Each structure stands twice: as structure tokens, then as C-alpha cells.
């Protein structure tokens, strides 16, 4: 069942298009939003979180019309913005109480029980009474999730939640997001394809304000099914090939460079066809060479 429906959405900044005729449907679970810089991801998330107006289109969130029922929609929302600023003199616990009060949770007992549960869920209980200025980037992001979840929202918007996290923080964070997806609608924008791979059932790809793909992660990988190839050359020849080729990735293996290329025909005499990944599908869609 769809919980969020976007129909013919258009947004411009001083007549420059940022989103063009977007049609999207989401349901319970984690929905990934992928796209290069300037694709329109943050613009879409700001619109969904009611902080940015739009010119055209219809957006329905849990049966409420965003254009008419903004106040009610806000009551369903939890939002972690891309740039999450926190008052660093607060402790984590104080900050969550402050946000809870701002969200209208005036009853201290109810607010306290949610704050304590969320601190535990995002694994911040041991540091809850430490000042935020002593927190790592990952801890601040986890606090960001906790503040987004205060008030038990049904629709959670996370703008690049794993940006700047180290690998162990990222894994911990993914676990929190996966659990949320069991009974919430979560939309998550990222540049990091492995976040999508592990957390998201469905995904959309935006580029220059246009929606290029929406569907399953497996379906995205299949967009590169026409040809993903790998071949190796002596490492000394890396620069020559790197200049000539349009490749998805390259890696060093001993004295060789291994190139990964999307092409209909084998790009090199020793090229071997390989199984497409989500990243291959994403690159094929963005570069307009998808099948
Ligand atoms: N306040 C603004 N005024 C004018 N143009 C804007 C504004 N905010 C965004 N834009 C433009 O709208 C387009 C979409 O930007 P947006 O920030 O939504 O992209 P994004 O996919 O979130 O990018 P990133 O991954 O870099 O955060 C870009 O061309 C951007 O320059």
C-alpha cells in the first residue's frame, strides 16, 4: 500500500527548474533517493518536510494533501536535515527534551519515556549526560535520528544521514534505519550506494531534477545488463587507459590496474563480462546508457 504519492511535482528556484514532473510512490519500508550533486534530492526532501513550497503537482502523505493539510502532515513527520546543527553546550538528553518540548510534548513523563527509549535505540544512553561538543560525528548523527523520531512520526525523512561517518558508525546507523523501515515510511537520500544496497527495498534515481528510475534495487542493477566488463592492464599503463576510457571504477591488483566499464561491446580484447551491481545500474542510468 502506498503511504506517499507524488504526482506531477514541479519546483523552480527563480524560474530555474530544480524538479520537473516528478511522479513517485512509496510504501512502508526504506526508500532510497540517489543522485549526483544538484540532482534535486534535498529540494524534494524539503518539500516533503513542508519547509519549501512548490509550484505544481499533488503530494499525498498518509492520505493528507501536503498543500492543504500542512499542519497535520507536520505531525506525522520526522526530519533529519542534511546540515544538522545542534546546540553543543547541551547534553544529548537535554537536547532531546528540548526538541520534544518544541514538538508539543508538554507532559514530562511521556516525553521522558520516549527520550529514554530513543537514547537506548540509537545506542547513546552511556553518553546521554555528556555535552554534545564531546560527541563524534556518528554520535551527532544518531542524536539526529533520535530527535527525528520524537513524537512517534510515521514518515521519516533522512537527508544524507551517513555522510562523514566512519565504517563502524555507518554499520550501526544502517541497523537503526533498517529497523525503522519495518513499520515506518523512511526516505533516505545518499551518495553512498552501499547504504542503498543494505537498507533499501526500493530506490529512485534523480538527475538534474528529472526522475530517471524508480523501482527495486535489483531492477536498478539490471539497468546495466547490456554490458558490464572488467579487464586488467599493467599498472604502468593506468594513465593511458584512464584518459581514453569512460570507466565506472578502477582498482589496483598487484602490478595491474583493473578497469570496470559499461559498454555494449567488449572494451578490450581481454575484457570479461561481469554481473552488474546496483552501482553499475546507477551509472548506466545517470549516463543515459541503460537498457
Ligand atoms: N535556495 C536555492 N536557490 C537557488 N537554487 C537552488 C537553491 N537550492 C538548490 N538550488 C539548485 O537546485 C538544484 C537542486 O539542488 P538540491 O540541493 O536539491 O540537489 P541535491 O541532489 O540535494 O544535491 P547535493 O547532493 O549536492 O546535496 C541545484 O541546481 C541547486 O543549485
UniProtKB/TrEMBL annotation:
Membrane-spanning segments: none
InterPro entries assigned to the protein according to its UniProt record, in alphabetical order: AAA+_ATPase, ABC_transporter-like_ATP-bd, ABC_transporter-like_CS, P-loop_NTPase
Record keyword Iron present: no
Matches recorded under SMART domains: AAA (SM00382)
Domain ABC transporter: 4-233
One Pfam family this sequence matches: ABC_tran
Keywords: ATP-binding, Nucleotide-binding, Transport
Homology family: Belongs to the ABC transporter superfamily.
Protein's UniProt name: ABC transporter ATP-binding protein
Species the sequence originates in: Paenibacillus spongiae
Amino acid at each position: 500500500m502506498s503511504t506517499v504519492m507524488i504526482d506531477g511535482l514541479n519546483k523552480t528556484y527563480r524560474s530555474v527548474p530544480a524538479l520537473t514532473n516528478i511522479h513517485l510512490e512509496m510504501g512502508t519500508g526504506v526508500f532510497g533517493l540517489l543522485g549526483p550533486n544538484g540532482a534535486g534530492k534535498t529540494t524534494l526532501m524539503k518539500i516533503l518536510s513542508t519547509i519549501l513550497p512548490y509550484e505544481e503537482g499533488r503530494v499525498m502523505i498518509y492520505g493528507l494533501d501536503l498543500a492543504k493539510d500542512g499542519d497535520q502532515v507536520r505531525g506525522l513527520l520526522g526530519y533529519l536535515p542534511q546540515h544538522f546543527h545542534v546546540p553543543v553546550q547541551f547534553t544529548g538528553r537535554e537536547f532531546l527534551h528540548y526538541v520534544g518540548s518544541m514538538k508539543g510534548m508538554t507532559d514530562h513523563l511521556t516525553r521522558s519515556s520516549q527520550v529514554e527509549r530513543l537514547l537506548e535505540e540509537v545506542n547513546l544512553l552511556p553518553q546521554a549526560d555528556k555535552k554534545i561538543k564531546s560527541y563524534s560525528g556518528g554520535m551527532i548523527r544518531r542524536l539526529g535520528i533520535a530527535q527525528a523520531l520524537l513524537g512517534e512520526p510515521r514518515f521519516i525523512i533522512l537527508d544524507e544521514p551517513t555522510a562523514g561517518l566512519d565504517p563502524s558508525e555507518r554499520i550501526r546507523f544502517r541497523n537503526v534505519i533498517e529497523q525503522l523501515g519495518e513499520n515506518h515510511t523512511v526516505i533516505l537520500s545518499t551518495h553512498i550506494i552501499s547504504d542503498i544496497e543494505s537498507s533499501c527495498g526500493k530506490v529512485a534515481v534523480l538527475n538534474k531534477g528529472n526522475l530517471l528510475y524508480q523501482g527495486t534495487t535489483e531492477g536498478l542493477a539490471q539497468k546495466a545488463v547490456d554490458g558490464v566488463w572488467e579487464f586488467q592492464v599493467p599498472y604502468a599503463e593506468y594513465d593511458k587507459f584512464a584518459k581514453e576510457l569512460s570507466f565506472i571504477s578502477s582498482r589496483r591488483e598487484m602490478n595491474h590496474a583493473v578497469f570496470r566499464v559499461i559498454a555494449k561491446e567488449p572494451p578490450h580484447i581481454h575484457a570479461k563480462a561481469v554481473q552488474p551491481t546496483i552501482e553499475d545500474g546507477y551509472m548506466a542510468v545517470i549516463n543515459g546508457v541503460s537498457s
